[in-house]
Amino acid sequence: MIAQLTGTVIAAGATHVVLDVNGFGVKALCTPATAAAVRLGQPATLATSLVVREDSLTLYGFTEADERDCFELVQSASGIGPKIAQAVVSVLSPDALRAAIAAENIAALTKVPGIGVKGAQRLVIELKDKINALAATSGLPATTEAPDWREQVKGGLEGLGWSARDADRACDNVAGMVETDPATPVAVLMRAALRSLAK
């Protein structure tokens, strides 16, 4: 199991990062927020999860180990593979996922592409006890409020080359979206922030 990678970022796309680890280029699939947080030519550390299939070995990378643990946990639910698990952690932070499952918030879970009402109900039933255990091991309560989206969006904008001042201004521009819907995905906030800066 490859649990962590540290190297220099040599390429990054919307959903992947390539790290040069001592001359060995390693590609990791990741969420848009993780891809936006890294910077070309700069060192980066990713918590990783290796998914082994008959015909492939696919590495998934995450900004934090907590996010990786949620990615792995979600796959333990029946009918959930790595693609949907990645969509879950793209839309819901670990704290938001724990809160949604603990509160049986089906509406929040169905915001994830590929998860319908039945899938969301299955996640709640199969993961409720497990997600609480995961929260306990991470030292976080199971019903924590949504994560600090501002820190993630600001970090992503700075990683794309914007100044801290511009990044703060963009976060102020999209703060109303969070007030309207606290479960707004970071990726959506990031796109809105970028649009506000482009004006």
From TrEMBL:
GO terms for cellular component: cytoplasm; Holliday junction helicase complex; Holliday junction resolvase complex. Residues 144-199 are annotated as: Domain III. Residues 72-91, 107-126 form the Helix-hairpin-helix DNA-binding motif class domain. It comes from the Bacteria. GO terms for molecular function: ATP binding; four-way junction DNA binding; four-way junction helicase activity; hydrolase activity. One of its GO terms (biological process) is DNA recombination. Signal peptide: none annotated. It is found in: Cytoplasm. Keywords: ATP-binding, Cytoplasm, DNA damage, DNA recombination, DNA repair, DNA-binding, Helicase, Hydrolase, Nucleotide-binding. Pfam families: HHH_5, RuvA_C, RuvA_N. SMART domains: HhH1. Belongs to the RuvA family. Homotetramer. Forms an RuvA(8)-RuvB(12)-Holliday junction (HJ) complex. HJ DNA is sandwiched between 2 RuvA tetramers; dsDNA enters through RuvA and exits via RuvB. An RuvB hexamer assembles on each DNA strand where it exits the tetramer. Each RuvB hexamer is contacted by two RuvA subunits (via domain III) on 2 adjacent RuvB subunits; this complex drives branch migration. In the full resolvosome a probable DNA-RuvA(4)-RuvB(12)-RuvC(2) complex forms which resolves the HJ. Has three domains with a flexible linker between the domains II and III and assumes an 'L' shape. Domain III is highly mobile and contacts RuvB. The RuvA-RuvB-RuvC complex processes Holliday junction (HJ) DNA during genetic recombination and DNA repair, while the RuvA-RuvB complex plays an important role in the rescue of blocked DNA replication forks via replication fork reversal (RFR). RuvA specifically binds to HJ cruciform DNA, conferring on it an open structure. The RuvB hexamer acts as an ATP-dependent pump, pulling dsDNA into and through the RuvAB complex. HJ branch migration allows RuvC to scan DNA until it finds its consensus sequence, where it cleaves and resolves the cruciform DNA. This is Holliday junction branch migration complex subunit RuvA.
